[in-house]
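Homework help board

Subject: predicted structure for assignment chain

Our instructor gave us this sequence and asked us to write out the predicted structure in C-alpha cell form, then describe one feature. I got the C-alpha cells but I'm not sure how to describe them. Can anyone check?
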Amino acid sequence: MYGTDQLLEKVIKKDFVILEGVVREADIKQHLPKAVFLLKDDFPYDVLLDEETKEISIKKCPVFSVHHSLESILESLAEHDKGLVIDDNNEFIGFVTYSIIARNLMKEYKKGQAFLHTILNTINESCTAIDKDAKVLQWTKGAEKLFSVKEKEIIGKPITDFFKTERLEILNSLQNGSSVYHSQHHARNDLVVMINSNPVYYEDKIIGAVVSETDITSQIRLNNELYATNEKLFHLEEEIRKTQPTENPFSYIKGNSPALKQTLDIARKAATTNASVLIYGESGVGKELFAKAIHNLREDKNAPFVAINCGAIPSSLFESEIFGYEKGAFSGADQRGKKGKVELARGGTLFLDEIGEMPLEMQVKILRLLQEKKFYPVGGTKEIEVDFRVVAATNRDLKELVQEGKFREDLYYRLNVVNFKVPPLRERIEDIIELTHYFLYEISVKYNRPIHGISQEVMQSLLKHSWPGNIRELRNAVERLVVFSDNGQIKIDDLPMEMERITQSSVAEQENTKITSISQENVSLSEQLQAVEKEILLRELKKADGNKLLCAKNLGITRATLYNRLNRLGIKA
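My C-alpha cell output:
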C-alpha cells in the first residue's frame, strides 16, 4: 500500500534519547523506559537493559537513511535490536526495530489483499490466478458467472480438475512463459472468449499465471447475423431505390454512432432552408454524400447538382470552368463557346468542394456571384442571371486561412451561414462494423465473388486501425480483401501493408520484443533496468514539456525523488 519511504517514515519511533560524553549509569536509568542511545566517537550504541539482572550493556547499532530499502534494513535488524534513522540533513529523527517493521508490513499486506480481493470482485470480467502447481489462488465473481463454478469449490484445487488441459491457455503461460492479449479462445465447445494471459515472475522464475476472459460468444453470433442481415438489407435497399425515387436521401450515409446521428440531424435541418451550407471534414469522410443528400432533400428531382473541385482545377482555367466562355474568347477555346458550372447549376445546387483551395483572385468573383447571382462569361459582354443554392466543403480551417490572409473574410461569412463537421471514422468506431459489412456485400456483388463472412481477427484489425483516409480508405481495404479472397474466405494477410494484424500471437510478440529490445549481451540486469528507467523518465519529461513538478506528479513520485533519479542516471533536464 505504501512505498518504501512512506512506510519507513510511518513506523519510525520518536520516543528516544541520545546521550553524549561521559555518561553514568544513573543518567541512563532516569531516561528509561525510553530508547536510549550513546554516541561515542561519532558512532551510536544501543543501550540494553537486562530485565532480570537490571544490568545495562551497550551494543553498536546501525544507522539508516530514510531512503534505505526496507529489504536492506530488515537484513541488518536481524542482527541488531534497534537501528537509528537519519534524515537528508544527517540528523537523527528516530529509531526502528525488526518487530515494528514486520508488524506494519503484515498490516499493509492485509490491506493490500483486501483491496485486491475487492478489485477482483468488482470487475465484470472473469479473472483467474494459479500458482506454480496450477492450483487456483483467485477466482472472481465474473469467473463464477462465466464457468458456473463457485469460488469455494475451486480455490486451492488444481484447475485441471475442472477444465480440459487443451482448453487452458493459462497453462501455456505457466509452463512456457507465453503471453496473449485480446486473443480469441474457445474455452468450451459452446463458449468463445476474448482472453489475456500472462505468467507471474518472481526473481526471474515463473511462480504462477493470471488470465482474464470476456465472453464474446454472443458478439460473434451477432456479427454473423449482422452480415446476413446486411446482405438482405442491401438487396432490399436497391429494390426500394428502384421503385421509390423520393426515398430518404440520407439513407446512403451508413452508420448509427451518436456522433454521426448528431451530424445527420444538423444536415437535415439545414436542408429545410435555402441557406448556404459549409461542410467541414477530413478527406474521405463523405462530405459530397452529405452535399448530395441536402440537395436531394430541398430540390426537385430533376434539379441539377453540379460539383466543382476547387483544388483540382488549375488557377489559369478556374474562371473559364466556373463561368464558361463565349466563342472565340481565347486561343484554343471551343468555337461554339462553353457553359460554365454556374450556369449548369441553374435551379439546383452548386457544390464547391475543397473551397479552401480556391485561388484568392477568384474569391472576389465568387463572392459577387453569391451576392448578386449574376456573372459574365469569359470574353462575354452580356451579364447572365442564375438562381442556385450553394453547398461548400473543406478539410481546411477557413477561419485560420482568413487570419493568414489566404481566404477572404467576406466570402467566409457568406458561405458560413449553416455549418457542421462530418466526424472522422476514428471518432465513430462503432460504425466500422456496419460500413464493413455494407461494403463487403456491395463489392462482392460487383466482382461476383460471394463472401461467407468476416473473421473476428480481421474485424479486430479493422477496428484497431486509425483510418487516416476515413471511409474511402475503409472501402478500398474491403475491396482489396474481396479481390484476394479464396473460396469465399477473407484472409487477414490480405489487409493493406500499413494496417496492423491483430492475431492471437501478435500482441504477445510485441510484448516480448519490448523486453528483448533492451537486452544486450554481457549487460547486467541492473544496467538494463537503468536503461529502461532512463527511457521512461525522458519520455515523461518530454510529455510534461520539461515541467519536473508535473512529471513527478504523473509518475506518482515526489519531486525530490525525481531529482535524485535524474542525477543518478545522468539526465540533464
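Reply (TA_rk): Your C-alpha cells look well-formed. For the description, you could write something like this. The radius of gyration is 37 Å. That's the kind of observation they're looking for.
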